[in-house]
Amino acid sequence: MERTFAIIKPDAVERNLIGKILERIESNGFKIAGMKKTQLSQKEAKGFYYVHKERPFFDSLTEFMCSGPVVLLVLEKENAITAWRDLMGATNPEDAKEGTIRKDFALSIEKNSTHGSDSAENAAYEVSYFFSETEIL
């Protein structure tokens, strides 16, 4: 069983898509091992996206991620990292395949409704950034 990290981003939360996204997660065989709704502070967002600090989109990304509530998730499944990234679809919703979350729900490349870890190392870091082991069941 593999573990990955996911975020339902502010644009999706604002449009009341939490339930629809959670339904897709569960109907695709994921176990939700941890979940919480929160609003990120600038400090949390900048720390979380630290790897992108030199990128031109860093400020707008961190500002967007603090613009409203998010849902933080720990997902488990065989090959969870790849499976979640496949279910999300391409970062740019215009490039995402039909039936993916981003194709169906994203508004733009930045407001693309979901985040997911891209490697086992990043998944471990991202899960531990927001969840203690006692919060994961």
Précis, in short:
The protein is 40% helix and 19% strand.
Mind explaining what this structure looks like?
This protein has helices at 10-14, 18-27, 42-48, 58-65, 80-88, 101-105, 120-130, and strands at 2-8, 31-38, 70-77, 114-116. The chain has 137 residues and is an alpha+beta fold. The protein has one domain (2-135): Alpha-Beta Plaits, CATH 3.30.70. The protein has a four-stranded antiparallel beta sheet. It starts with a strand and ends in a 7-residue tail after the last helix. The mean pLDDT is 96.
Report the structural category: alpha+beta
The succession of helices and strands, N to C, reads EHHEHHEHHEH
Unreliable spans are none
Radius of gyration: 14 Å
End-to-end distance: 13 Å
Tell me the CATH superfamily: Nucleoside diphosphate kinase-like domain
**CATH fold naming:** Alpha-Beta Plaits
- Beta fraction of the residues? 15-25%
What would you say the CATH architecture is? 2-Layer Sandwich
Q: What's the β-strand tally? A: 4
> How many helical stretches?
7
Q: Give the biggest beta sheet.
A: 4 strands, antiparallel
Q: What is the mean pLDDT?
A: 96
Tell me, what is the CATH class?
A: Alpha Beta
Q: Tell me roughly what share of residues is in helical segments.
A: 40-55%
Oligomer: single chain
User: Which term fits the overall shape?
Assistant: globular
- The total tally of domains equals 1
Strand order of the largest sheet: 2-3-1-4
